[in-house]
Amino acid sequence: MSTTADQIAPAHDEHHAPRGLLRWLTTTNHKEIGTLYLVFSLTMFFVGGTMALIIRAELFQPGLQIVEPYFFNQMTTMHALVMIFGAVMPAFVGLANWLIPMMIGAPDMALPRMNNWSFWIMPFAFTLLLSTLFMDGGGPAGGWTLYPPLSLQTGAAFPFVILAIHMMGVSSVMGAINVIATILNLRAPGMTLMRMPLFVWTWLITAYLLIAVMPVLAGAVTMLLTDKYFGTSFFNAAGGGDPVMFQHIFWFFGHPEVYIMILPAFGIVSQIIPTFARKPLFGYASMVYATASIAFLSFIVWGHHMFTVGMPLAGELFFMYATMLIAVPTGVKVFNWMATMWRGSMTFETPMLFAVAFVVLFTIGGFSGLMLAIAPADFQYQDTYFVVAHFHYVLVPGAVFSIMAATYYWLPKWTGHMYDEKLGRLHFWCSAIGVNVLFFPQHFLGLAGMPRRIPDYALQFAGFNMISSIGAFLFGLSQLIFLWVVIKCIRGGEPAPAKPWEGAHGLEWTLPSPAPLHTFQTPPQIDPSEAHG
Amino acid sequence: MAEMATMTMSDDDLRARQRRGVRRTLLVLVLLVLAFYLGFIWLAAQR
C-alpha cells in the first residue's frame, strides 16, 4: 500500500517533528529532501573534483610524477562514477524535489516516504563505492563503462562496486517513479500538461528515460557479477558468450544516460533565459516536442559509441544518421533560446551569465558530437582526448553550469537571502575561463592522437596538457568561491522578496522567501498567463 | 474535460482522486522497471 503526500503531511507538523540529525534522517518533506540531495551532490562534486585534479596534476608533465599508473586508472574510473551518479544526477533530483511540487501547486512529492528512502540509499552507496579504493587490489580501474573482460579483473572490490551501482540505480528509479507520480497526479486544478513550466516537462521526460534504462544497467552489472562468481558466460567468449554484447547493453543504458544528465539542464535554461530577457519563452510547444524527440532518439543511437567494434556497414550507417538526426531537435532548442533573447530587455545577473554560457559552450559540445557521429571519422577519434573534450563540454559547461545557474536563480527562494552578486560574477568568470582553458586544448590533443585514460604521454603532447592542467586548477579552485557564496547566502544577507527577479513567472514565485516548509496544502488557482511564462 | 472536472471538485474528492492515481502510476512503473530488468537479462540469455 502506498503512502501519498496528503496522508503524510500532518505527520510532520512542526510541533511533533524530531530535531537535529533525526529530523534529517526521517524527513519526508520535499524541500528538506531536496536540500539533502543538493548538499550531497555538492560534496560529491568536490570529491570527484579532487580526483580530477589528481588526474590533471599527473598529466601536467609527461612521465610519471605523482601517482602509480594503476591508481591513476582508479581515479579516472572513480571520477566518472562519482561525478555522474554522485554529483550531476543527485543535483537534478534535488532541484526536482525542491521545485516540481512548488511549480505545479502540489503539497509535496507523491510518495514522500519513498522519497526519503531514495535519498538515504545514496550516502551508503557512495561510502561503499569509495571504500573500494582501500581494499586489496584497489578500486575499479577499467573505466566507468566496466567493459568485460577487463572489469572482471578487478580484485576484492568487484562485488562491492556492483552492489553500489545497484543501490544508485534503485535510488534513481525510486526518484523517477516519484517524479512521474507527482507530475501526473498532483498538479493543481487548471495546471494542464501544456501549462507546466519547461523544467517540469523536461524532468517528466527524464524520469521516463530513467525508468527505461536504469534497470538495463542493473541487468548488465548483474550479468557481470554472475559471470565472475556464478559460472555464467554472458560476456565470456570461451563459454559461448560475447563481450561485445555487454557494450551493446551498456550503451543502450549509457546513451539515454547522457540525456538524463542534460534534459533537466535544458529545462533550467528555459526557465532562466525568459526571466532575464523579460520575454516569454519562444516556442514553448516546440520545446516540449523537441525534448520528447531527443528522448526518443536517445534509444536508437547507442551504436555510435562502438563504431570500431566491427559492426556491419548498414549498422554503422544507421547509427551515424540517427545520431545526426538529434541535431535537429537540439537545434530547435538553441534557436528558441536565442529567439527568446532576441530584442529582450536583457540583464546579466549570475544565473543569466551561466545560462548564456551554457547555450554557447553546450553547442560547442554538440558540434564536436556531430564530428564524432561521422562513422569513418570516428575511427580516428575513438578513444582519444577529442572524445574527452567533447563529453566534458557537454557535461561541465553544459550540465554543471546549468546546476550552478539554477542554484543562483532559486537560492533566494530557498534561503530567504540574496546571494552576493559580486562574488557570483567572479565565480562565473573564473569558471568560464577555467573550463575553456581546461577542455579546449583537449580537442587538439585528441586530433593529434593522444589516447584517453593514460597516465603518461609522448613529448609532443606536453604543451597542451600543461595548459589543460592549469585550466583544471583554475576551474577547481574557483568552485571554492561557489561554496563560499552558498554558505554566505545561507547564513544571511539582504532579505529576498517573494519574487526577486523582475521577469520571473511561475507558482514558486507566488510563495514567500524562504519558502515555508509546507506549501500549497490547498491547491492554488492557476492563472494561465502566469503558468509557464 | 477531465481537467474541467478537477476544477469543480471538493478538496477531499481531489485528494482521493490523486491518491488513486498515484497508486495506479506506482504499480505500472514498478512493473515496467521489473520488465526492463528481467527482460534484458532474458534477452541476453537467449543468445
From TrEMBL, chain A:
This is Cytochrome c oxidase subunit 1. InterPro entries: Cyt_c_oxase-like_su1_dom (IPR023616), Cyt_c_oxase-like_su1_sf (IPR036927), Cyt_C_Oxase_1 (IPR000883), Cyt_c_Oxase_su1_BS (IPR023615), Cyt_c_oxase_su1_dom (IPR033944), Cyt_c_oxidase_su1_bac (IPR014241). It is found in: Cell membrane; Membrane. Gene3D superfamilies: Cytochrome c oxidase-like, subunit I domain (1.20.210.10). Pathway: Energy metabolism; oxidative phosphorylation. Belongs to the heme-copper respiratory oxidase family. The keyword Transport applies. One of its GO terms (biological process) is electron transport coupled proton transport. One of its GO terms (cellular component) is respiratory chain complex IV. It catalyses: 4 Fe(II)-[cytochrome c] + O2 + 8 H(+)(in) = 4 Fe(III)-[cytochrome c] + 2 H2O + 4 H(+)(out). PROSITE patterns: COX1, COX1_CUB. Cytochrome c oxidase is the component of the respiratory chain that catalyzes the reduction of oxygen to water. Subunits 1-3 form the functional core of the enzyme complex. CO I is the catalytic subunit of the enzyme. Electrons originating in cytochrome c are transferred via the copper A center of subunit 2 and heme A of subunit 1 to the bimetallic center formed by heme A3 and copper B. Its main location: membrane. Keywords: Cell membrane, Copper, Electron transport, Heme, Iron, Membrane, Metal-binding, Respiratory chain, Translocase, Transmembrane, Transmembrane helix, Transport. It comes from Plasticicumulans acidivorans. The chain crosses the membrane at residues 36-57, 77-96, 117-135, 155-186, 198-225, 245-269, 281-305, 317-339, 351-375, 387-411, 423-441, 461-487. Residues 24-527 form the Cytochrome oxidase subunit I profile domain.
Automatic annotation (TrEMBL), chain B:
It comes from the Bacteria. Keywords: Membrane, Transmembrane, Transmembrane helix. The chain crosses the membrane at residues 25-45. This is Uncharacterized protein.
